[in-house]
Amino acid sequence: MINFRTANPADANEINEVTRKAFKLYADEVGANINVKALHETEQSVLDDIAAHKVFVAEDESGKILGSVRIKSLSGELAYLYRFGVKPSVRNGGVGSGLLQSAIDYCAERGFTAIALHTNAKYYNLARYYYGKRFYVHSTSTEKGYIRALFVKELQSKNFDISPAYKE
Fold it and tell me: Residue 2: is it exposed, middle or buried by C-beta count within 10 angstroms (0-12/13-18/19+)?
């Protein structure tokens, strides 16, 4: 059984390890010479995110971290999802979907109008995954050296300002 819960500071080292493994796979699958910031993250970065934002983890019955996702508020109406990663050995087993649903539920409960995230537009399997979760591509940019897609999931039928997500 997989448990989804809010992260605490004691989880930071394991979150950092799982994030590195997941984003190494991401970098390998994209196959481009891009700077993947998650691969250079420190345990302190994780601790800072746990303190300042919302971080969810998935853990197995023994308490081992299987994946995590982070959410921050960009405005009163827009949340941003980042550092979403699952241990490669448990991919396609529902861990990511459970984490993503935890993040969506959290954002809906807090009254956000939409959730935004970025990913490489050429990572077909990931783009397809987000489409399956009712996200859509709002726009793309190449300012980071690759085709970066801004995905959005609308939680309410209201207008919202997406511009804070451009800075992420």
Answer: middle
Half-sphere exposure of 81 (CA within 13 A, CB side): 28
Task: Based on DSSP, count helices (H) and strands (E) in the chain, helices before strands.
Answer: 5, 7
Burial class of residue 134, CB neighbours in 10 A (0-12, 13-18, 19+): exposed
Q: How far apart are the first and last CA of the chain?
A: 34
Q: CA-to-CA distance for 9 and 26, rounded, in angstroms?
A: 25
How many Å apart are CA 134 and CA 82, to the nearest integer? 17
Query: What pLDDT, on the 0 to 100 scale, is given for residue 26?
Result: 73
Q: For residue 119, what are its two tokens?
A: 């990913």
**What integer is the mean pLDDT of 3-24?**
94
Residues 122-128, mean pLDDT to the nearest whole number: 88
Q: Which of 41, 58, 52 is nearest to 6 (CA)?
A: 58
